[in-house]
Fold this protein.
Amino acid sequence: MKLAIPEHIRGLVPYPPGKPLEELEREYGITGSIKMASNENSLGPSPKAVAAIGQALGNLHRYPDGSCYYLAQAVARHQQVSPAQIVFGNGSDEIISLLAAALVQPGDEVISSAPSFLVYPKVAQAQGGVNRVVPLNDLRHDLTAIREQITGRTRLIFLDNPNNPTGTMFGRQAFERFLAQVPEGVVTVLDEAYIDFADPGQRLDIRDYLDGDRPVAGLRTFSKAYGLAGLRVGYGLMPPALADCLHRVRGPFNVNSLAQIGALAALTDTEHYQRTLAMTREGIAWLHEQLPSLGLTPLPTETNFFLVDLGRDGKAFYQAMLKKGVIVRPMNAYGLPTYIRITVGTAAENKRLLKAMADTLAELGQ
Ligand SMILES: *Cc1c(COP(=O)(O)O)cnc(C)c1O
């Protein structure tokens, strides 16, 4: 077969293809494994969302509401923004793609950091854009170096705040100093997937900058604190003129009906949300207290996950943990080959993780 694949598409690397959990369990002859690898909500989905979705199943023969009308009204109220400032997507991943599709032409430049979320350089490349990837400084976004990478062709700057995978966050002052030096016309995107978990006292909030003279966008998701990663729903907050561009680019029914209904219900489920935050806070504190007894120093975090430098090959450690039914994320794809990333779990899961880590260390030899 002869396909005329553009060079920039040939160069893309597919997202690391994990096997389904069931398949791994079969291969390793284990059952009841726990996944602490993808920053999901270990508490499960919001029960209100599950109930609302159950009631909506009989309407699956209908197309969804392409405008996400009710969800937009509810999020606008919840976030105190206007519905014209919101764009929903099939996960906030889709908003990242839409931003690139709307703004990046071949040869245009997109700035992101490394190690950081791997989706940003990918969507830029898919548009034929040129990536300028700035190394973190001491595991934090290097805002000074990022500013120095801006050229006349820069269209987008992606900053996840807090950053995945390091869990670090920059605050208002640093951001305002940075934003003041970004030329007009460059869109700065703050990916706030983990903002719910961040210290409210330190937190910078994109909503405070939506009306400024520099175009900004903030990304939020129902995948983490709301426990709905499998539904695929997230949104961007941005000036109406930018939202308008994304609406032109997006598919007509990009958010499915169950996702809209589930997200709407989850938004009202304050109890599940608060329990999630409490579980996360307690789990992080407990693991940070316990891991030093294994000779490990977990890094501080503003999220529901954290990094640990094992001082040894993280992939081998991950594989040994897998055989014990505990799945963590090795960081070699992020350029941190001796690190693993751990998503906080329930108290029982955290205990099991700790035991598996102790056994793995004993097995592999200190
Ligand atoms: C998990 C995550 C998201 C959320 O993606 P969805 O597509 O909404 O599930 C976005 N950005 C970062 C940095 C993440 O880690």
Notes: The domain at 47-267 is CATH 3.40.640.10 (Aspartate Aminotransferase; domain 2). The two ends are 52 Å apart (CA to CA).
